[in-house]
Write a structure and sequence with these properties.
With 333 residues, the protein is α/β, with parallel strands linked by helices. It contains eleven helices and 13 strands. The protein has a five-stranded mixed β-sheet with strand order 1-7-6-4-5, with helices on both faces. The structure holds oxa(dethia)-CoA. Oxa(dethia)-CoA (UT7) binds at residues 29, 33, 37-38, 114, 155-156, 159-160, 225-226, 228-229, 232, 262-263, 266, 290, 321.
């Protein structure tokens, strides 16, 4: 059976750097608290004059296409993961398609939050395997900062989230090629939907958006941080082991683990559970915060640039987040 391979990776983060010290000026928090609880030192916020979710994605996409030596015009399908689309509808997929001048090709939007990129990758992988498309652009991109409440009331959520975009190009792997996606694994448990969610504006009420909704924080993310944390550390390990077992592999076969960059403490917990050394886990949350669906492709791209992800490596990616959803993938580079 034909397998899919990751032929190119790229990322783009906005120029504006917001440090913990900048946040100290607008809310009751401290650099020490943020670093100790999350590992984050700084993050990027978009420029409303120039950045959109779709055009940040386009910048990441161009880099991924370059790395794959692919002419942008040869991209034949887009899968776009984001929970922060430019419009309520249509999704950002069509805006990216327009931005890249790819009128006519299909563009699919995925809304699975922190697991969104792996869900998107998994969908694209199936299209390659069934020979439906040959050059699929898979995106994770978010602008979270425009919805963050940078006040004492919002501090439990707002110090974590940030903006950025990552992209990969998926292509069919040649029969004799080592490079390939071995498998992806997707899960969800909707019983926990309201533990991490943005309630408003929602469609199933008389008015989608009222002044009260804005005043009562409904338009901001609500997160039961402790509960998310507790489930994350269990499910990350489970879904990583599921991927290894499905491929008759062991933890010792993983050359690099890239966990969704939710919180450095979560990444370190998983690393310890699995007994992986520091060289075999890549984290960049320190510099970018939690960019939801964008975090894994940004980290993949940066790990490659820094020489941490090399040809021949077995890469494991894993995510947990709103839904709850969780997912993993094993990729031979
Ligand atoms: O990517 C999507 C998935 N999301 C996650 O995986 C997030 C998972 N959860 C977490 O990362 C952590 O739960 C947080 C980083 C969100 C919070 O860390 P925590 O250790 O669970 O802190 P907490 O919410 O239990 O709060 C501890 C204390 C509280 O004060 P009291 O009640 O002990 O007096 C909070 O009010 O810290 C206070 N606090 C803050 N203090 C300074 C909450 N946010 C802040 C803040 N600065 N930004």
């Amino acid at each position: 059976m034909i397998k899919a391979k990751v032929a190119g990776i790229g990322h783009y983060v906005p120029e504006k750097v917001v440090t913990n010290f900048d946040l100290e000026k607008v809310m009751d928090t401290s650099d020490q608290w943020i670093r100790e609880r999350t590992g984050i030192s700084e993050r990027r916020y978009f420029n409303p004059e120039t950045d959109t979710v779709a055009n940040m994605a386009a910048k990441a996409a161009r880099k991924a296409a370059d790395q794959a030596s692919l002419d942008i015009k040869d991209i034949d399908f887009i899968v776009f993961a984001t929970i922060t689309p430019d419009y309520f509808f249509p999704g950002s997929g069509v805006l990216l398609q327009r931005e890249l001048g790819l009128e006519g090709i299909g563009a699919l939007d995925i809304r699975n939050a922190c697991s969104g990129f792996i869900y998107a990758l998994s969908v694209a992988e199936q299209y390659i395997k069934t020979e439906s498309y040959r050059n699929i652009l898979v995106i994770g991109a978010e602008i979270q900062s425009s919805a963050l409440e940078l006040t004492d009331r919002g501090r439990g959520v707002s110090v974590i989230f940030a903006d950025g975009a990552g992209a990969v190009i998926l292509q069919p792997a040649a029969a004799d090629e080592n490079q390939k996606i071995l498998s992806t694994h997707l899960h969800a448990d909707g019983r926990y939907a309201e533990e991490l969610y943005v309630k408003d504006p929602g469609s199933s009420r008389h008015e989608r958006l009222t002044k009260e909704m804005i005043d009562e924080v409904g338009i901001r993310a609500h997160m039961n941080g402790n509960m998310v944390f507790k489930h994350a550390v269990v499910k990350f390990q489970e879904v990583i082991m599921e991927a290894l077992t499905a491929n008759n592999l062991e933890v010792s076969d993983i050359d690099l683990l890239i966990p969704h960059q939710a919180n450095l403490r979560i990444s370190q917990f998983i690393q310890k559970q699995l007994g992986l050394s520091d060289e075999r886990v890549f984290n960049n949350i320190m510099h970018y915060g939690n960019t939801t669906a964008a975090s894994i492709p940004i980290a993949m791209s940066e790990a490659r640039e820094k020489g941490r992800l090399k040809e021949g490596d077995l890469l494991c990616i894993a995510a947990f987040g709103s839904g709850f959803t969780w997912a993993s993938g094993l990729i031979q580079f």
